[in-house]
Known about the structure:
- The protein is of the alpha/beta class.
- It has a single domain, classed as Rossmann fold (3-Layer(aba) Sandwich), CATH 3.40.50.1970.
- The chain is 45% helix and 15% strand.
- It has six helices and five strands.
- It has a five-stranded parallel beta sheet, sandwiched between helices.
- Helix 3 links the parallel strand 3 and strand 4.
- Helix 1 packs parallel to helix 5.
- The radius of gyration is 17 Å and the shape is globular.
- The relative contact order is 0.16.
- The site of 5-O-phosphono-beta-D-ribofuranose has 10 residues, from strand 3.
Amino acid sequence: xxxxxxxxxxxxxxxxxxxxxxxxxxxxxxxxxxxxxxxxxxxxxxxxxxxxxxxxxxxxxxxxxxxxxxxxxxxxxxxxxxxxxxxxxxxxxxxxxxxxxxxxxxxxxxxxxxxxxxxxxxxxxxxxxxxxxxxxxxxxxxxxxxxxxxxxxxxxxxxxxxxx
Length: 164
Ligand code: RP5
């Protein structure tokens, strides 16, 4: 069994600008992870192999980002019971609303937890994965609470500019 706990997959290297925000959070929390391109329509056999091996490899969550038709998260979810967290990547022509609708509209029976379009969604998917792992890891739970507390402090110290 591999040591990897969270897999981050995306449909194209062009998704990396968005998906690196998920990887950055996983790095910050020292979560063993991997990141790779697994294109649903250009490498469907690889996609199924990845999904089919996920549980046996010990993955606890798969963060899957895609743009446009964005079938990657749903198709991975169709082949594994490992929780899939979907990130809609902003597409060139429809700004990611297409990706969001595609990922969030999974028919009943095969869920994909769907996050916001773009970098906020990528970061939040990773934070959600951290929260899931923290249920079984008290040290990680403390780390996550501290991360939230820091964020609260930053918000409390926010200053507003003068009225112009
Ligand atoms: C999807 O198509 C990818 O997830 C990406 O968001 C989009 C465009 O891919 P490229 O044409 O940039 O490779 O499969």
